[in-house]
Amino acid sequence: MSGYGQGRGHGHGDGDEERTFEALPPAQGGAFTRTWWGRAWLKALEDSALDGQQLKAGRRHARAGAVGAVSVRPGRITAMVKDRDGTTYRGDVLVREFSEEQWERLLDLAVDSAGHIAALLDREMPPHLVEDAAAAGLDLLPGIGDLEAECDCEAWDHCPHTAALCYQVARLLDEDPFVLLLMRGRGERTLLEQLQARSASRASGPGEKTSSRHEGVGGMPGVSAEEVFAAGFLVPPLPAPPVVPAAPGRSPSLDTDTPPEPGVDPAALEFLAADAATRAQRLLGAVLGAGGHETTTVPAEARPTEAGLIEAGLIEAGLTVAQDAVRLAANGPVPWIAVRLASGSGRSRAELDPATRAWRFGGAAALAVLDEEWTPDAEALDRAGVRLAEAWADDERPVLRRAGGARWTVVGAEAQLRLGEDGRWWPYLKAGARWSPAGPPDRDPAAALATAFAAGATGADD
Which residues contact 281 (CB under 8 A, 6 or more apart)? Predict the structure, then answer.
């Protein structure tokens, strides 16, 4: 196993070659990692392991808090992992260390940009450092086959114990990317001393005396803040926000003399590219807060969050293929594309029309109200009954008949109210034998029904 650490002797710096982290509490739902470098670590695990069931078992162990204190040293991470039956196993995962020559290259790359060092000190793994290192032939983050497992249970591949250890280490990496650098062979203090020395050497220049240098970490010659500023050794300012274009960009024509690969439809790809451009233009305008097309100065904290963009209908998260087909069809594509989208949504061409109407009124939530008939529990039905009773004055209240689930039809009229699981009321009108969405939802059932009657009176589609 050339290149993999076998113990403490591979560290650099006195007392800097091993760190031990106390056992973490059980993970409370969600993903194990929130950073891109933590996800890269877990991807290396998932790509290395041959048995997905072992990974699932390891994930359960880690989530349950079965992983003890984690020891990290060059080339190796170690922890005791408790099985469900109480048996404890020692799991080790080996990570390839960098050679001295590789470390020299990485240190040079880090010193080349103050932003790299600033990000590391802020406990961030700078993407540009990873990219620069990769361009120089250094894989800072592990890849396929880079995580080699050893365990007392004598499994020949990643077992639940080593998998649990890797999942737990992903949480450590979230908080401190220096953990990964220690695995690669250098501890935090040693790295900072070596980076400081390189920075001082470059700032002093050839032939300059170092008698006026300030003392740095570990007694190494340092550089004053004044000299650093004068040398331009600072993170460059952020670029100006982009200007929101007046219209989406045009998708390139894919109609060329070269025939497409089998199964590739250039016209369909052009349609998808145009849709992506339209969505990107809308999102850019929303995120920058631009009312026109000038560069905005809206502060970051005032810009909409992802949740806000979802609520505003600017983005839809986690769509199925059928839902996304309806979303695309709602933009009014040419007939032959609409036919293909109807097929992709699992609907007939006639069934696609009310689905696209629903989408325009409320996205995936409106589509669910159209397609799915849910039945509220007794408490929710009571609340709905009270809401319907209080929505109108006695002499204005329509006669409503519950039509099953969470639907109430107006007696004597081709109108219906549907209650969504989020408590909003959706107006519907009957068109032939089919109920069709008549407008956006409202928390007030009277307002929603008024929307239905207004749509029926005008014959409006939206």
Answer: 244, 245, 247, 248, 249
102-107 long-range Cβ contacts below 8 angstroms, 24+ apart: 102/138, 103/185, 103/186, 105/133, 105/136, 105/137, 105/138, 106/133, 106/136, 106/138, 106/140, 107/191, 107/194, 107/195, 107/198
Tokens 């591949």 locate to: 157
Kindly tell me the burial class for residue 306, based on how many C-beta atoms sit within 10 Å of its own C-beta (0-12, 13-18, 19 or more).
Answer: exposed
Q: CA 1, CA 30: separation in Å to the nearest integer?
A: 35
Query: Which of 4, 167, 45, 150 is CA-nearest to residue 91?
Result: 150
Q: Is 435 helix (H, G, I), strand (E, B) or coil?
A: strand
Residue 2's pLDDT is what?
37
Query: Where do runs of H (alpha helix) occur along 372-398?
Result: 378-390
Contact 221, 200 (CB under 8 A): yes
Residues 412 and 425: their CA atoms lie apart, in Å, by 20
Task: Give yes or no for residue 322 having a pLDDT over 50.
Answer: yes
What was the pLDDT predicted at 15? Answer: 53
Which residues lie closer than 8 Å to 127 by C-beta, 6 or more apart? 36
Local confidence band at 224 (pLDDT 50, 70, 90 cut-offs)? low
User: What would the two tokens of residue 247 be?
Assistant: 């219209």
Q: Which carries the bigger pLDDT value, residue 361 or residue 112?
A: 361
pLDDT grade, residue 294 (50/70/90)? Answer: very low
In three-state secondary structure terms, 369 is helix
Longest dimension (CA), the chain: 97
> In whole numbers, what is the pLDDT of the chain averaged over residues?
81
Distance CA 178, CA 62 (A): 22
pLDDT at 225: 60
Whether 242 and 284 have beta carbons less than 8 Å apart is answered as yes
DSSP count for the chain of H helices, then E strands: 16, 12
Closest CA to 174 of 21, 39, 19, 17: 39
The residue written with tokens 């109430």 in the block is: 408
